[in-house]
Amino acid sequence: MIVTKPLVSAEPSAVASVQQWRDGEMHAVQDCLAEETPVAMVYNGVSHAVMLATAQDLEDFALGFALSEGIVQDASELYAIEVQAQEQGVALHCSIASERFMQLKERRRTLAGKTGCGLCGAENLAQAMRYPVALHNSVVFSSASIVAALAALPAHQLLQQKTGATHASAYVLADGSIQLVREDVGRHNALDKVIGAYAKSELKDTVEANRGFVITTSRASFEMVQKVASAGLSLLVAVSAPTALAVRVAEECGLCLVGFARGSRYVVYSHGDKILL
Length: 277
Prior knowledge:
By secondary structure, the chain is α/β, with parallel strands linked by helices. It has helices at residues 58-68, 98-107, 125-128, 143-152, 158-163, 187-199, 222-230, 244-253; strands spanning 13-22, 25-34, 37-43, 46-53, 78-86, 89-96, 111-112, 141-142, 167-172, 178-184, 213-216, 235-238, 256-262, 265-270, 275-276. It folds into two domains: 37-128, Ubiquitin-like (UB roll) (Roll); 141-276, Cytidine Deaminase, domain 2, CATH 3.40.140.10. Strand 9 (167-172) and strand 10 (178-184) form a beta hairpin.
């Protein structure tokens, strides 16, 4: 009988022995790799989704995912989260309000998430294309704050510094100061984590809460716009390009969408009147 080691790890990273070609010679070195771990979202005992994710900040992930997917409408409707490490991955057992659980069962949605996929497993187009409600606010943002936050973000990306393989999302105050950063191998997961952290933090209850904004180190897809707008925030700054659908949805719902944000440069794709120069 052949006994093999479990392939799945519940750690965020791992060290591997590798061969590195450098200066015309091969060298044996140690490299730090980001882990991909299957994370199951279980609601009131029923498995709903499995995402490949980084196994850290998992309680934030559970709450942010539940809010972003419309499983709960408010953080208070998620009563408890139990993190269970298993041989095949990690299960997040979430206890939610009975009304929300009944709605979830009616949706009959099963996901098999991947690091680059946002809509895997939706049963129909209506489920996949959940457009965010309009953002009715007159919040404006400073260009200087965007540039300052972009410059400060890399210092907060500790897992990226170790592995070079993770995305980050950050919640930034109006003055450009970074308040929350979460990392993950999946860009959607990183955003869910920071939304979850924001939803349960004291920041959400402050007067300045909706004057903050989100930075993502990825492209800005439809679902990234959907998640940020659903959190009630009206500026998403992405270091890479947006999709055309993301721009149209951002324009329609009142979200200011910024792409190619690098150094002191960026491109505004929707609601440029929300940025003061």
